[in-house]
Amino acid sequence: MTTKRAARSIGISLLGLSTLLAPAITTGLAQAHGFTENPPSRQAVCANGAAGDCGPIQWEPQSVEGPGNFPQQGPADGHLCSADNPTFGQLDDPRGGDWPATNLKPGQNVQFHWKNTASHPTESYRYFITKDNWDPNKPLTRDQLEPAPFATVDYGGKTPGDTEAHDVRLPAGKHGKHMIFAAWEIADTDNAFYSCADVNLS
């Protein structure tokens, strides 16, 4: 988190520069882009045509970027799947619980595949899952997620490749429809990339 604090300090000091420099300052911040292809995230099923009426996210599934340091900070409740970006608001629509879902088993070892269209120094990848009593008919909020990630993959500032695979063990006590909320925390900006994957655990 030290690197992120330093980045925040730099960002504050940059505010004092001329507005003429603003485009040059902001252009380089969002260099990393990525999303989970397996299990398929909502942006993945939009991109591959398994879900319709998705809007712009179907052409840029890698772009769900928002404030990092989740859950203490990050996107607003009800807008977690879109990273609080109204352009991708279709991702927050629960669709009556009818998003395509991947069948998995509780306690199963799953390999999460990320497709990264640009690389960036990385703090960690973290995986959260919904509580047993969550409501799939409502937009996702923090209080619907277990407070701690069930898996964390630390990178310590290393830069991932174009594809990344993480071997993750799903919680053994979960059953039925759930959502896995993945956060890719970037090391040298305050941002993160988010993916929401709908799953059936049986």
Task: Give a structural overview.
It contains 3 helices and 9 strands; from the N terminus they run ααβαββββββββ. The strands form 2 sheets. Strands 2, 3, 5, 6, 8 and 9 form a 6-stranded mixed β-sheet that branches. Strands 1-4-7 form a 3-stranded antiparallel β-sheet. It starts with a helix and ends with a strand. The longest helix is centred in the N-terminal third of the chain and has 13 residues, at 2-14. By secondary structure, it is mostly beta strands. The chain is globular, with a radius of gyration of 17 Å. The chain has a single domain, classed as Coagulation Factor XIII, Chain A, domain 1.
Mean pLDDT: 87
* DSSP helix fraction: 10-25%
CATH architecture: Distorted Sandwich
Summarize the main sheet: 6 strands, mixed
List the helices and strands and how they pair.
Elements: H1 2-14, H2 22-27, E1 33-38, H3 42-47, E2 65-67, E3 102-104, E4 109-118, E5 122-129, E6 151-154, E7 163-169, E8 176-186, E9 191-201
Parallel strand pairs: 3-9
Antiparallel strand pairs: 1-4, 2-9, 4-7, 5-6, 5-8, 8-9
